[in-house]
């Protein structure tokens, strides 16, 4: 279907507007059908394009607008807390969005080239475009260490497609959303006359709702009492000498005000190395843990050797067990390590950055009574395949399998913005993929308990100081996603596109 609008609108304004609107599909708005409609507009435009270059431009503009709108809060960390001049901060956010948007431009370019020999809107809309789109999402998850924030599937933690998460993960869910968009685009292109497209628009949500009724995991042991702490320490004061003693006193008070099976602080709640803490600080926390029969997970920096610093979580209170420590593995570019050649950019900012060491990908869980808690730090929970790999590695090694997930974060760097509910939604996807509850202890929000079905069961208001007390039931069992990770969606998409390429070349040789 060709919409009679001026060419400049199609070539520039339409993909920009459609991409920008997708921000409302994610938390805190949750209008997930809007994402499918916006993608359908892009795909419908692609079906009416003759030039792969024009198609690539549309994909790039859509990706640029979507990523810029969804991650505009990076401006806060760069300008407000980093001291970068406002124009440079805006330019940096746009440059990141433009760079990642290229992946979608390349995806649509390849889709257009692959579709040419077939001259079939059905093959293009239902096979080629959704697969290429999903592979662009997946590439965002690893290229340049990965930044898969707000890839397509995250919009569907509350949609019918969430039932597929335990099978194919966030990228597979994104593929299915793109498939629905392709079906809608095909209906627009053919003025509603396509039975397969209509069937997909009905069948996929129905199948997702049916899958959501399957319980891939089951309760394990007894429920734990937990307290998740939220200090609400202002980011611009967190690392100042004047605030340090206040922060230490605050968290000591929050930790010791009541016992619980598990008490958790946010990431770097204690913002200095252990050697710089008061001499008896950790000893006092250990005494409380032992006398109250509580176990603590404390966020703080750590040093394992001279010149090597780690972003860590320290376990306190285990009886008859070695000291526990989890070290962050997946580090943030510019936040925790400086990419080669980027020192000049870091020097422009006043954020206290440095090069941290990396923890191992596979690390043990922390035992709390008859449950095992697997921590991750800050944006590590964007990488579902890494969390799944840790769970499955425990099964393969016949080690204790984590029954609870835990995220400790400090995203106060981004102020009072939509970054906070977006991060909560990301954690919800991890619960859907693994069939395990996720605990979240954050500095400013969102501190919450997410159950094994991805629902938020308890939550503290953002930008308040306090402790979230809850009962949490761990789970056992393995979802298909934990067992196979991203192999099924990525492998099937690649095989599909290669098969189509082979068929097109075979047909051209016969011709």
3D structure, described in words:
It is a single chain. The protein is 48% helix and 14% strand. It is built from 16 helices and 14 strands. It has a six-stranded mixed β-sheet. It has a six-stranded mixed β-sheet with strand order 7-8-9-10-11-12, covered by helices on one side. The longest helix is centred in the N-terminal third of the chain and has 30 residues, at 86-115.
Instruction: Tell me the CATH superfamily of the largest domain.
Output: Carbon-nitrogen hydrolase
Number of helices: 16
Give helix % range: 40-55%
Count of discrete structural domains: 2
* Rg, Å, rounded: 24 Å
Poorly predicted segments:
1-5
Assembly level: single chain
Largest sheet: 6 strands, mixed
The chain-level structural class is: alpha/beta
Alpha-carbon distance between the two ends: 30 Å
Fraction in beta strands = 5-15%
What order do the helices and strands follow? Answer: HHHHHHHHEEHHEHEEEHEEHEHEEEEEHH
Mean pLDDT: 91
